[in-house]
Amino acid sequence: YHGHVDSLLIQAGSGSTTLGTPTSPGIPQDFVKHTISLPYNDMDAVNEVCSKRGKEIACIIVEAVAGNMGVVPPKKGYLGGLREITKKYGIVLIFDEVMTGFRVNYGGVQSLYNIQPDLTTLGKIIGGGLPVGAYGGKKEIMDSISPVGPIYQAGTLSGNPVAMTAGIATLEILKDNKIYKDLEQKSQRLAAGMEKVCKDAKLPTYHTRVGSMLCTFFTDQPVTDYDTAKKSDTKRYAKFFHGMLERGFYFAPSQFEAAFVSTVHGVKEIDATIDAFKDVVIGL
């Protein structure tokens, strides 16, 4: 199982230095007070908190490309800024690459943007789609984990042979860089096609893409964080989703999820998706 962490089931408070409040029943207030939630892409907020409490902060964890509010790329300098300030205060920088690892690039977002975190979390892709989670990073940190170090870590299904076999086979296939070049071309074709359809129809949308991850936000404003993502017209997105589903195209059911292009999608499927989208947009 790799679904949630209690300390992250919080919501941002009123202001960058406000401690979080629980958003899920059963999470004690005393537990979540140890987590500070800040807006994505807001380096000023990070600088402010670190200037006041930098010596107290153990780690900064971030989706290097946000995929749980739609697809929101990092602003120029954001990831580099996080790396710089974490080094300044001796804070561990953790990239959540569960969604992006081996998807946007063989080396993940950190390879794409040339920013090296201290720890990285990974998910189902390394199991060939089977349930698996993993983390890795600098030797001095990993040596703290049992059996080498004193920090307990174990799991009933750790190293599950079926998931590991599927994962190794998948990663061997992905070593071929042609796969990522092909994914980039197909993803660009789909994103550009959908954007053109909206532009021609004068439908207010904002389109984002990183590698084979993409999203169409039904808003006329740029989306750079969760607050701006929430300004999207979710009812219009729902009509889009059901319209595409009726035509045999399954997109994410939520405005705040990512769409993915896979290796088995061909130009034929991409163009058919754009044509179906054109039909759906007429009714939006």
Question: What's a concise summary of this model?
Answer:
The protein is an alpha/beta fold and 284 residues long. Helices cover 38% and strands 12% of the residues.
List the helices and strands and how they pair.
Layout: E1 10-11, E2 21-22, H1 29-32, H2 43-53, E3 59-63, H3 78-89, E4 92-96, H4 108-112, E5 119-122, E6 134-137, H5 139-142, H6 161-174, H7 177-200, E7 206-210, E8 213-217, H8 226-229, H9 234-246, E9 259-260, H10 267-282
Parallel strand pairs: 3-4, 4-5
Antiparallel strand pairs: 1-2, 5-6, 7-8, 8-9
Report what the structure shows.
- With 284 residues, the protein is α/β, with parallel strands linked by helices.
- The chain has two domains: 38-174, Type I PLP-dependent aspartate aminotransferase-like (Major domain) (Aspartate Aminotransferase, domain 2), CATH 3.40.640.10; 177-282, Aspartate Aminotransferase, domain 1.
- The protein has ten helices and nine strands.
- The strands form three sheets. Strands 3-4-5-6 form a four-stranded mixed sheet.
- α4 links the parallel β4 and β5 (119-122).
- The longest helix is centred in the middle third of the chain and has 24 residues, at 177-200.
| Number of DSSP E strands | 9
- Sheet having the most strands: 4 strands, mixed
Number of helices: 10
- Taking the alpha carbons of the first and last residues, their distance comes to 39 Å
CATH hierarchy class name of the largest domain: Alpha Beta
Helical content stands at 25-40%
Output the strand order for the largest sheet: 3-4-5-6
Using only C-alpha atoms, the radius of gyration works out to 20 Å
N to C succession of SSEs: EEHHEHEHEEHHHEEHHEH
Shape descriptor reads globular
In the CATH hierarchy, the architecture of the largest domain is 3-Layer(aba) Sandwich
Catalogue the unreliable spans: 14-18
